[in-house]
Amino acid sequence: MSAWESVIGLEVHVQLKTQSKIFSGAPTAFGAPPNTQACAVDLALPGVLPVLNAEAVRMAIVFGLAVEGEIAERCRFDRKSYFYPDLPKGYQISQLDEPIVRGGHLDLETDDGAAKRIHLTRAHLEEDAGKSLHEDYRGKTGIDLNRAGTPLLEVVSEPELASPEEAGRYFRTLHTLVRTLGICDGNLNEGSMRCDANVSVRRRGSLVLGERTEIKNLNSFRFLDKALAFEINRQIDVLESGGTVARQTLLYDAERDETRPMRGKELSDDYRYFPDPDLLPVVVTQSMLDQARATIPELPAAKRRRYVDELGLTDYDARWLAVDPNTAAYFDAAAAACGQPKAAANWVMGDVAAAVRREDAAWAEVPVAAAQLGKLIERIEDGSISGKIAKSLFKSLWDDGGEVDELIAGRRLKQVSDSHEIAAIVRQVIEANPAQVEQVRAGKTRVLGFLVGQAMKASGGKANPKRVSELLREALSTDQS
Amino acid sequence: MTDARFATIADIRTALRSRTTSAVELAREHLDRIARSELNSFVTVCEDDALAAAREADKQIAREGQSGLLGVPIAHKDVFCTAGGRTTCASRMLAEFVPPYDATVVTKLRDSGAIMLGKTNMDEFAMGSSNENSYFGPVSNPWDATRVPGGSSGGSAAAVAAGLVPAATATDTGGSIRQPAALCGISGLKPTYGRVSRYGMVAFASSLDQGGPMARTALDLRLLLRHMEGHDPLDSTSADVGPTPREADRVGLRIGIPREYGRDLDARLGATVDEAAAVFEGLGHERVEISLPHTAYATAAYYVVASAEASTNLSRYDGVRYGHRTESPADLDDLYARSRSEGFGAEVKRRILTGTYALSIGYYDAYYRKAQRLRRLVRRDFLDAFAAIDLILTPSTPSTAFEKGALVAPDETKDPTVMYEQDVYTVPASLAGLPALSIPCGIVDCLPVGMQLIAPHFGEDRLLALAESFQRATDWHRRTPAL
User: Fold this and answer.
1) Which of A48, A65, A144, B123 has the most beta carbons within 10 angstroms of its beta carbon?
2) φ/ψ of residue A10, rounded to 5
3) Would you call A47 an interface residue with chain B, using a CB distance cutoff of 8 Å?
4) What is the SS3 assignment for A481?
5) Cα separation of B398 and B403, whole Å?
6) The dihedral sign for the CA sequence A430, A464, A312, A297
7) Are the CB atoms for B255 and B280 separated by under 8 Å?
8) In angstroms, rounded to a whole number, what is the distance separating the alpha carbons of residues B246 and B222?
9) What does DSSP say about strands B115-120 and B42-45: parallel, antiparallel, or unpaired?
10) What share of chain B is helix, strand, coil (3-state, %, to 5)?
11) For residues B292 and B258, is the Cβ–Cβ distance under 8 A?
12) Exposure pattern of A181-217 as b/e (b: 16+ CB <10 Å)?
């Protein structure tokens, strides 16, 4: 065990998926041509004024309620001043000391099944800046203000995360939560969640926090993990060689896998915060709270508990299914349709997940309706079709759509379980394969499989294989006696 | 009304209704006077657009008759954005700026049928009390061209006083409507903060800026206010209170005279305000001495708060997206530093520096926070006083129009705070967000003197009614400069 331990706190910027920006009516959709989604307010033309988007406030309240934080009855916005070309007003509208949410917590599932509670300091609303595009312009910097004014909820944790692994777990838990709440699309590759990490190390067992550094703008689970690992090792090396850690702001360079100090343009020693006189204080009423509360869906932890306790799934399956709200919704619908949660879980985690991966499909848009998957499972369980046929049917449903019972009837796929019909086939197989029959009778039971296969083939795959096997054994033993 | 140049809006409406003149004729007459004027009160004149609009107005008058401000020529202070028309704020920074939208005030007045003839000169970004801080040069006072018209709405005030337009829009942050109205001998109203939308009005100090009208009479102010006010979803601080009512005149109002005002006032100016108070007594109102104990702190608090807000409001002028950009900057810092150094005038830079200082770590508590506390105390003074009285009467300015160059020097050798003291009577009501107006109440040394009336929040009706009754009883508002 290392002589050092790390202490990590995360500030995660969650992009709220409102239709329009937090202080203007411009759309927030990702990927539009540069500067086509920036209106006069986003461009900070003279004389324009911010108007708060009520939907962003509602989403912040939903988040605050979901993490059991305290929603401020009254909060306000402040101006945070610094000069940078992608910050059009020369200040960012944020919340300094009156955030909309204080406190709250996230419970992380650990491998031994116990939960570790991470407390939140606060969550506050602010606007995103635009993007500086350094790559495409030789010797110049392009500015895209489409992102300027996109609503962010900055979720700040207490420094209670003990390792990069735990920090990753926290980030993932938050990712699942905000997607379940429907307040963020969670598309990390589009920057929908970006994370700043505060990191320090100290002698194991020490109660005093070491000097910390802040790593800015980590936008994937992998980079968060690698950047933290690098930075923790760097700090330990500094301390072990007798140096001191300097408080500084760092950027993680993924290509070189290292952190290095940020060059100062976006940093200021003094942001000169003061209340924004263009915006009135936000007053959160009881009815706003009640309305927000009514929209909160089943949260991931409760979902996992229900899967285990009520549906009898394993812990592993429950976690697997509950990570992504769209996967969980698909599973819930399929399980409800067939009344067979375990079978539904196997299908969702097996064939459906494989197809989703293969086709690079979205769980929200799986072409096989959950009700059809339920019906398919029902027809397996009631013996109408074999598992093998079911798999080919699933593929056909995925590719061409259709209705399970109609496909079974139309393609004469219904499994043959009728004893007379199967007995006739079995008799044919025995007559046609005397040598193999002899071997079975001589005790080579392995050969029985061959005979079953022949019978299945003769039935066009529709015979119930279990029944075939039973009747073959019966016939052979009867003949012997 | 003997001289048509000084017709009121009421007169103009009558003339349009009786078809003794037309909107086009009015526009031409006024445009002609503007072209011949040497006051430098206009930054931009919109002749073609004005005549086109006037022709449309005449058609509408022929069809439906005259109503509202249909066919009435006006001017906008160049702080209000006009779509497709240069909006400069009298700054080099915005000398070429053409906004793609109209200010709400501009839209409303256009919808009322008013014909905009052009944009008036002002102190750069509305910072100043003499209109000498303009990139386009100083404005002269029509009563004496060697004197200032006041500021920051000096262009609007001079234009109205000289008969170049019967009315103009203006803005008031610490006195920028009332002080130039007083110095030019016209009527000017700063409405309650929130009464008139700030959307499209280039910001100086957001918690104080308020648009309002300038005209020859209180009656015209009321008419203009009706077409400027109203809740605007584009301005979060705009008040949802409905239009200013028109209630029956009341007698027996208690008019408070604050003993803290006018201590350093020229005795002859003081005497005119005394006489005005006597007129009100003659009209059946009561004069009551009151105390507003925190008045002495108002100017200091105002300059801290206003500069703090301005320092961030003006951060957007960085040479990146629009506005003045320096030639071949070496790097980003150079782009910022030189664009802003070249684009802003001395007074604007001073306010940015003052405001930046007041908000800095280590100074925030001593300056910004303390100023906000004083602001609350000043506001409390007024609210306490209004528990016992209906209106407050004060002088508008400490002096009549002063000589150009008396308080500012190009080499920055004059103490800027002497100019700031020009606002000593107007700033307290601004800090409290109260409606206040200035109307003429005398002449001293051939220069007009103004008095200020202050009402409780959203008390514009009472304010205007009292001013109207004063103007029925006196003729100070009819005095005009010899042109």
Assistant:
1) B123
2) -115, 145
3) yes
4) coil
5) 14
6) positive
7) yes
8) 9
9) antiparallel
10) 40, 15, 45
11) yes
12) bebbebebeebbbbbbbbbbbbeeeeeeebebbbbbb
Quick one: tokens of A382? 């009631």
Shortest CB distance from B359 goes to which of A45, A269, A274? A274
Place of tokens 């803290």: B260
Q: Which residues of B touch A45 (CB under 8 A)?
A: 99-101, 322
Say what the ipTM of the complex is.
0.95
Domains, chain B, with CATH or none: 4-252+461-478 (3.90.1300.10)
A193 is written with which tokens? 């969640």
User: In which element (H, E) is residue A341 found?
Assistant: helix A341-347
Assess whether pLDDT exceeds 70 at residue A417.
no
Q: How far apart are CA B346 and CA B323, in angstroms?
A: 18
- What region does A390 belong to: left with phi over 0, alpha with psi -120 to 50, or beta? alpha
Express the helix, strand and coil content of chain A in percent, nearest 5 each. Answer: 40, 20, 40
* Six-digit token string for B147: 């004197």
| Catalytic-residue membership of B399 | no
In sequence order, which residues have a C-beta less than 8 Å from that of residue A16 and are 6 or more positions away?
A22, A55, A56, A59, A60, A150, A151, A152, A153, A183, A184
Is the pLDDT reported for residue A264 higher than 90?
no
The CA distances from residue A53 to A170, A273, A389, B114, B224, in Å, are: 28, 22, 53, 34, 32
A89/B99 touch (CB, cutoff 8 Å), yes or no:
no
Q: How far apart are CA B201 and CA B420, in angstroms?
A: 23
Mean pLDDT of all residues in A221-248: 94
CA of B48, closest CA in chain A: separation in Å?
Answer: 25
* pLDDT given at position A478: 64
Where is average pLDDT lowest: A414-428, B167-181, B317-331, B436-450?
A: A414-428
CA gap A288, A280 in Å, rounded: 17
Contact yes or no for B436/B463 (Cβ under 8 A): yes
Instruction: Decide: A141 and A134 in contact? Cβ < 8 Å.
Output: yes
pLDDT at B174 over 50: yes
Dihedral over Cα of B435, B207, B171, B377: its sign: positive
SS3 A213: strand
* Residue in A46, A51, A143 closest to B236 by CB: A51
A53: left (phi over 0), alpha (psi -120 to 50) or beta: beta
In Å, how far is A24's CA from the nearest CA of chain B?
9
Among residues B41, B176, B339, B430, the one annotated as catalytic is: B176
Q: How far is B40 from chain A (nearest CA, A)?
A: 24
Q: Strand, helix or coil at B290? A: strand
Residue pointed to by tokens 């392009």 = A142
What 8-state DSSP symbol labels residue B367?
I
* Whole-number Cα distances in Å, B207 to A386, B417, B455: 75, 22, 19
Q: B270 is written with which tokens?
A: 């003081």
Is the pLDDT assigned to residue A332 strictly greater than 70?
yes
**Residue in chain B nearest A39 by alpha carbon:** B100
Distance CA A120, CA A68 (A): 10
**Counting beta carbons within 10 angstroms of the beta carbon of residue B412, is it exposed (0 to 12), middle (13 to 18) or buried (19 or more)?**
exposed
* Sequence letter at residue A26: A
What does the alpha-carbon distance between residue B168 and residue B277 come to, in Å, rounded to a whole number? 28
Instruction: Give the tens place of pLDDT for each residue, B269-322.
Output: 999 999 999 999 999 999 999 999 999 999 999 999 999 999 999 999 999 999
Check residue A435 and give its pLDDT. 85
Cis before residue B152, ω within 30 degrees of 0? yes
B458 vs B173: CA distance, rounded Å: 17
Q: For residue B256, what pLDDT is reported?
A: 98
Tell me the average pLDDT of chain B. Answer: 96
